[in-house]
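Re: that chain you flagged

S.,

Sorry for the slow reply, it's been a week of failed gels. I finally had a moment to sit down with the sequence you sent. For the record, here it is as I used it:
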Amino acid sequence: MPGPTRQRERTSEEETETENETGCPECESDSLVRSPDGGELVCDDCGLVIEEEHIDRGPEWRAFNHSERQSKSRVGAPTTQTMHDKGLTTQIDWKDKDAYGRSISSEKRSQMHRLRKWQERIRTKDAGERNLQFALSEIDRMSSALGVPRSVREVASVIYRRALDDDLIRGRSIEGVATAALYAACRQEGIPRSLDEVAEVARVEQKEIGRTYRYIAQELSLGLEPVDPVQYVPRFCSELGLSEEVEQKTREIIEVTAEKGMLSGKSPTGYAAAAIYAASLLCNEKKTQREVAEVAQVTEVTIRNRYQEQIEALGIH
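Prediction finished late last night. Pasting the structure tokens below so you have them in one place:
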């Protein structure tokens, strides 16, 4: 067993290491920073090098641009929730070329075709994984058609996996739950896509999407807030070719009328479309009700009703 002197030395070394991590021994400053390569611990105030020759856990190679980093990296793509196996299995490329970009022989092409076929078969071990693969591919297809970013696809895949783990799929179609998960992800990430737009790219009826969405939102406690009509304004104005002045005026109309409680129970897309129509008249960039209705995917009657309510609330005659 070590003696008392050895124990005291070890204790003092541990205290010194703790002090070095928490503050600078020279100026007693707490602002310690590590160098970009992680090799040195430096005081940001006085410049004292507190710790050096630290273990560098990064790669042993250096890269100065993205292409060099990609060519030297020896790891695969990060895991993703948008694939049933999270992207961990091997994928055999369909280009039938070798590492140098040269076409392979017909014998090798036949062999690669056979390997590719078996690889697709063994990626799913049972019907549950096959159904999950189909659902995630549906989410990816609809996301591409709607033009939503990658983050929404990831969130939609996570919501679908949660619904699958809680056995919410039973008695419902896979397409319906996948579409409802995508719509919920759009709402959660603040990407303005109406139920009509989602239903256009889906393979199920709008009524089923709405019913399934309400069910999974309640069961999974998603806690989604009502859609703000302002979120639709930039996209609608862009598609109509309206100026920044009209967009700003539309935001003002929505904010003023919403404060008076007129937004409650109204469709956000119809409300935003009516505000855009009113703002275009006020800014002398007139658009017809039909043009606005086609972009917002609402009826002209809805725009007329909301428009009348808004101009009355604003006191405009």
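What I noticed first: The beta strands are 32-34, 41-43, 49-51.

Talk soon,
D.
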